[in-house]
Amino acid sequence: MKLFIISFFIYSNINALTCNKYVEKFLVNYQGDATVLDLTESQGQVTAALALLFPHTFVTLESSNQVYNTFENLHLINPIFLNKKASIEFLTYLVGCEQFDVILIGDLSFKDDWKNFIDIYVKLGEFLIFYLHDKL
Question: 31, 43, 77, 80 — which has fewest CB within 10 A?
Answer without folding.
Answer: 31
